[in-house]
């Protein structure tokens, strides 16, 4: 059942009258600050941090704030419709959940809690390639609710094909290929702490649950450089074994598979040799819509169309890859002009409220992807926290749209903004 923005607003106020406060902060800046108190220093650095000086993280916000909404008066906005159509499916709002990996760092149910929350509101969830829960488990929890799969291009084409096949079999409605992470960016906060969660076997559930990856574990390993064994090394080994599938700790340890899984994963999960020509391989292996994530240049958007892609996601990975990069919103008008409505344009990086979504839609985006805010909500209140933050995004956007003088997203146009 559709819940309007006014219903959501009323619910919060009436609960407050009874002494019941929201489970997660309404203000998203405060939400981030509160989440920092609840999770480990390493987890917060991994989620919140950006590349280098984090200039791109700041630029994402500054660029959104540079655009101003021009509300129009005396428009009949008593009935408001924030639904969209995407790849032939009607969605209740323009929001999707971006793929974010290693969610076990903030909540034990991780991706599964997010999947249930998204399904309850029929919000599409893009399963992360670096998930803590296999895609099949999340897909089962979501039932008929829309879900997609994010793909990192591995050094093994057999593994790429296997991931895509599994995504099809568990009902994913699209494949989102992340282009901007063929190598990890210079992530200052993580480097300061010398911490990468994958080395503890976290965030590799899509791999350890994959038959091709399991076959790769049977191949002879390259000799690893010898490291000094410390107490921290032993703690990491315990984490690695515990995070590998199965319940018998000593049997897993004796098999050597937890260590081999981490070694194999770190040696192959990204591929800096990937080119546009590799997209032909993907197109041959799936009939699902394919979207390219990480597009920031109009010419790359045109190439996506030329190579038969079905959509793009304008993204700078939340500022985590290239320090000093352009923001997503400032490149949106030129990209929308280049695309000319031929394929859907999704946008992420820097979205922190309904006004941001309004601005992006006005400038030519088809839909909006939410990232860090839902992770902070997950850290504070699990599944219910994610549900609340999604409801708040929807309500905030609907009220912004109505108060700006629009009944539907179709009325949100560039002329409603001042720059």
Explain this structure:
This protein is of the alpha/beta class and 419 residues long. It folds into two domains: 21-188 and 271-418, Alpha-Beta Barrel (TIM Barrel), CATH 3.20.20.70; 191-268, no CATH class. It contains 18 helices and twelve strands. It has helices at 5-17, 28-38, 41-48, 55-66, 110-120, 135-142, 157-169, 188-193, 205-208, 211-216, 231-243, 249-255, 257-268, 279-285, 298-306, 328-339, 354-362, 372-403; strands at 68-69, 84-86, 89-91, 95-97, 125-127, 147-151, 175-178, 290-295, 311-314, 345-347, 367-370, 417-418. The strands form three sheets. An eight-stranded parallel beta sheet has the order 4-11-10-9-8-7-6-5. It has a two-stranded antiparallel ribbon with strand order 1-12. A two-stranded antiparallel ribbon has the order 2-3. Helix 2 (28-38) runs antiparallel to helix 18, helix 11 (231-243) crosses helix 13 (257-268) and helix 15 (298-306) packs across helix 16 (328-339). The two termini are 38 Å apart. The mean pLDDT is 95.
Offer a quick outline of the entry.
The protein is of the alpha/beta class and 419 residues long.
The CATH topology assignment of the largest domain is TIM Barrel
- Write down the secondary-structure element order: HHHHEEEEHEHEHEHHHHHHHEHEHEHEHE
Q: Which structural class is indicated by helix and strand composition?
A: alpha/beta
Stretches with pLDDT under 50, minimum 5 residues: none
Name of the CATH architecture of the largest domain: Alpha-Beta Barrel
Amino-to-carboxy terminus distance: 38 Å
What profile does the largest beta sheet have?
8 strands, parallel
CATH superfamily of the largest domain: Aldolase class I
Arrangement of strands in the largest sheet: 4-11-10-9-8-7-6-5
Quick one: overall form? globular
């Amino acid at each position: 059942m559709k819940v309007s923005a006014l219903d959501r607003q009323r619910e919060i106020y009436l609960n407050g009258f009874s002494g019941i406060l929201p489970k997660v902060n309404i203000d998203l800046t405060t939400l981030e600050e509160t989440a920092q108190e609840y999770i480990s220093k390493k987890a917060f650095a991994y989620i919140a941090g950006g590349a280098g000086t984090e200039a791109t993280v700041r630029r994402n916000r500054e660029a959104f704030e540079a655009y101003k909404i021009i509300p129009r008066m005396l428009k009949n906005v008593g009935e408001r419709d924030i639904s969209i159509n995407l790849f032939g499916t009607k969605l209740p709002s323009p929001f999707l959940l971006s793929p974010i990996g290693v969610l076990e760092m903030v909540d034990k149910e991780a991706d599964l809690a997010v999947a249930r929350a998204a399904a309850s509101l029929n919000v599409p969830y893009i399963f992360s390639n670096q998930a803590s829960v296999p895609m099949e488990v999340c897909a089962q929890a979501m039932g008929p609710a829309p879900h997609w799969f994010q793909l990192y291009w591995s050094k093994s084409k057999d593994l790429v094909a296997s991931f895509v096949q599994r995504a099809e079999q568990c009902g994913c409605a699209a494949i989102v290929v992340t282009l901007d992470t063929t190598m990890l960016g210079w992530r200052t906060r993580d480097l300061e702490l010398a911490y990468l969660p994958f080395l503890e076997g976290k965030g590799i559930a899509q791999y350890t649950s994959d038959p091709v990856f399991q076959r790769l574990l049977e191949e002879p390993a390259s000799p690893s450089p010898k490291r000094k064994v410390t107490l921290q090394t032993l703690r990491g080994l315990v984490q690695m074994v515990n995070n590998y599938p199965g319940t018998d700790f000593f049997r897993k340890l004796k098999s050597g598979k937890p260590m081999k899984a981490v070694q194999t994963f770190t040696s192959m999960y990204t591929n800096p040799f990937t080119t546009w020509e590799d997209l032909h391989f993907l197109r041959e292996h799936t009939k699902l819509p394919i979207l390219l994530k990480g597009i920031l240049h109009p010419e790359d958007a045109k190439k996506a169309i030329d190579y038969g892609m079905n959509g793009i996601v304008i993204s700078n990975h939340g500022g985590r890859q290239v320090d000093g990069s352009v923001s997503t919103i400032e490149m949106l008008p030129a990209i929308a002009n280049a695309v000319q409505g031929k394929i859907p344009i999704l946008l992420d990086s820097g979205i922190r409220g309904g006004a941001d979504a309004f601005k992006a839609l006005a400038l030519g985006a088809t839909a909006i992807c939410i990232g860090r805010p839902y992770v902070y909500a997950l850290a504070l209140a699990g599944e219910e926290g994610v549900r609340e933050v999604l409801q708040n995004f929807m309500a905030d956007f609907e009220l912004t749209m109505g108060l700006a003088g629009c009944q539907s997203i179709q009325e949100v146009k560039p002329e409603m903004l001042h720059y």
